[in-house]
Structure formats: C-alpha cells, structure tokens
Write a structure and sequence with these properties.
The protein has 16 helices and 13 strands. The chain has about 375 residues and is α+β, with helices and mostly antiparallel strands. The strands form three sheets. An eight-stranded mixed sheet has the order 7-6-8-9-10-11-12-13. Strands 2-3-4 form a three-stranded antiparallel sheet, with no helix packed on it. Bound molecules: zinc ion.
Length: about 375
C-alpha cells in the first residue's frame, strides 16, 4: 500500500492534539488525540512511499515498531486515506493516461472525498468507463445532461430524440448553434463526443460479440417537461420489464425538477404516480389527456439557467447512482420554481395496485404525493 492522506480535505488544527480534515460539514472529520510527532509524520503520507519505507522513516524518528500500521489503520478507519498505487490493473491503466486523468482530476478528488475505501476513488472512475447510459431528449436539459455524463467519464452515452435542431434547443455545453437544422440526435451525440474526446471509442465499449453492453441507466429528459413530470406509463413499461433503472428530469412551466430515480420493483414508477393522483382526483386522467395533447406545438417555458441547473443536478444524481450509492431518498423528486428558487423534495409513493410491484408491501393509505417535511434541501443547495 502507498497511503495518501486525502489531498482535498484541508487540515486545520483546533489545538495541539486535535486536527480537523475538511471544511464543509458533510465530509469533515475531526481526529483527536493526535500527538505532535504524528502531526509531523502526516506529511509523509503523500502517496509516494510504500509501508516498508514509511516504517523505516518512523524507526528513524524513534517511533515504536507498530506505529505506522496503527496510524494508517486509524486514518483509513476514519476514511482519510486513498491508495495512490492501486493493484487493480484497469485502475493502473487509467493512472498511465495522464491526459485523461488530468482532465478528470477534480472528479477523482471528489470521489476521494465521498468514498471511504482507499481503493474506491480510482475504481469508481474506472468503472464509469464501462457504463452505458441512454438519454432520451436532446433539448436544453437532455443534451447538456448527456454531455456532462460523458465529460464525467461515463464510457457510452447514447442520446435519442426526434426532429431537427431548432434555435431554442441550443445551449452552452449542449447542442451548438452551428448545428441548427441537423437531426437532434446527431447534434447531441456530437456534443457528447466533444465533451470527452479522451473517452473510450464506442466499439471498445461494446461487448466482444458485437452486442451492446446493458444499459446502466436511462435518463428521460424530454424537451416537453410534462412528459417527465407526468410520464407516459407505456413508455416506462419497457424499463420495468427489463428492470432498467431510470431517472426523470426536466423543466415544466418554469419549474425545474430532477427525479424520481426509479429502481423497477423497488421504488415508485410512473404508473404509481398516476394511480395515486387518480385516487385523489378521478378527473385527473381527463386533465392529463388534455395537457398531453398538442404539447409539441406549445411554447416551452424553459429558462436556460434553470434548464442547466436541472441538467447538472440530474447528472449528479445519475453519477451518484452509477458510482454505487444507494439513493438516500428513493421516490423523491427535487423541484424548484422561478423566480424564488426555493428547493423542495416531493415524496412520491409506490402504489399497491401498480403492476411494477414496488407498492405490494406499502401501506394502502399512501398519500400519493406531498411535499416532504424531511428536507431542508434549500439549505444544502445554498451551501
Ligand atoms: Zn409502479
């Protein structure tokens, strides 16, 4: 092992025996007691020395025999150590691609903060390269979201949409102005490629027998936000049948939202949402049918900054899922509306009668949707 004290968590001494690593409360760790000798020894944990060399250094400084192992174990137990030279061959291969790693350096540093296991940051970044994500929708939200996933190291990002690029689809990081008139899916794919020129080529991401790798995630970010806010049950059925996790995101009438992330059979799906809404108001399907009809011709109230925010938030949620974090809040849709931009988490519930099965054990008196009391999300978002 070549222990590296997590480089992005800033150390600060409270007093002679107490050190805090990290400023932001979510990931800061306070270690106490730490003696003065250990304090100076910490600077040697920069990833350039293996354990044998560190033991020699410790012996030279007059430390007892088990000192280094105890210190490293204690720091690793507090989630403060990265492995600088991982044994995994693919992680080592990534280490040998300095251009890619330099570009993804801040992403790797972020994984270093969020992952406790010393090997995990490089392994997670490596694993992203084998992931395949499909984004449905190449408008202001979808194209940017797809580009962000690609730039963050996801190996294969497929974008699907119909029609041709209109001037209103153009956004920084998404579809470029010069692509107006081209097919939307082609233009978005070009944006995805532009976002990460160093990502593996499509042919390398495919399986050896020529088939596509299975989808890790589908993101539904249609240009008409209504189709993600109250999604079509029929469109979701294919994902439920294949057990494909899927995430909704969009902007609807100056309200931006990300979620829910649907884990088929476990968390509420489009059908669950529709059934709960219809339980509360039997006229609901009639309203929805009116709203859905003619949607394509309607002007979309989709503020560029809000769309970009939603794309980033949804991409972050997608990456957290792809990196193996179980969703803290399954069935939650984060929402914010212009101009106040207060965030709130709307809890959606699984429905016992939905064929997806997520609600089969849920209490029958589920309330459909309501605004969650749990989340002072605005506080988190505002920092
Ligand atoms: Zn359902």
């Amino acid at each position: 092992m070549h222990p590296l004290l997590k480089p992005s968590l800033r150390p600060g001494w409270h007093d002679l025996n107490t050190v805090q690593f990290g400023v932001a409360p979510a990931h800061a760790v306070v270690l106490s007691p730490v003696d003065t000798a250990s304090g100076s020894f910490l600077s040697l944990l920069d990833g350039t020395r293996g354990l044998p060399l560190l033991r020699e250094e410790a012996a030279r400084m007059g430390m007892d025999e088990g000192y280094v192992d105890r210190l490293v174990a204690r720091l690793a137990g507090a989630g403060l150590i990265d492995e600088a030279q991982p044994a995994d061959p693919r992680a080592r291969a990534l280490r040998r691609r300095p251009a890619a790693l330099r570009r993804l350096g801040p992403d790797l540093a972020s994984l270093s903060v969020t992952q406790r296991d010393p090997d995990a940051p490089l392994l997670r970044l490596t694993a992203r390269r084998d992931m395949r994500v499909q984004v449905r929708g190449a408008g202001r939200v979808g194209a940017v979201l797809a580009s962000v996933l690609s730039a963050a190291g996801v190996g294969q990002v497929d974008v699907m949409d119909g029609g041709c690029v209109e001037p209103g689809d153009v956004s920084p990081g998404g579809v470029a102005e010069a692509q107006a008139g081209r097919r939307r899916s082609d233009a978005a794919r070009q944006a995805v490629r532009r976002a990460a020129a160093d990502r593996p080529r499509r042919t390398r991401a495919a399986h050896r027998d020529g088939t596509e790798p299975p989808l890790s995630l589908v993101v539904l970010a249609p240009r008409d936000g209504l189709r993600a806010y109250f999604p079509d049950e029929a469109e979701a059925e294919q994902f439920l049948t294949t057990g494909t996790p899927h995430l909704y995101a969009g902007v609807l009438e100056a309200t931006g939202f990300a979620g829910p992330l649907v884990l088929p059979g476990s968390t509420p799906c489009a059908g669950c949402v529709l059934r709960h809404r219809t339980d509360r108001d039997p006229r609901w399907p009639r309203l929805l049918a009116q709203w859905h009809s003619g949607g394509r011709r309607r002007a979309q109230a989709c503020d560029l900054a809000l769309a970009t925010t939603v794309a980033g938030l949804a991409a972050a949620r997608a990456l957290a899922f792809l990196d193996g974090h179980a969703p803290d809040s399954p069935g939650v849709r984060w929402e914010t509306s212009l101009p106040a931009l207060n965030w709130h988490a709307r809890q959606l519930w699984a429905h016992p009668a939905c064929p997806c099965g997520a609600g089969s054990e849920a209490p029958a008196e589920g309330m459909g949707e309501h605004t969650s009391k749990q989340a002072p999300l605005h506080a988190t978002m505002a920092g």
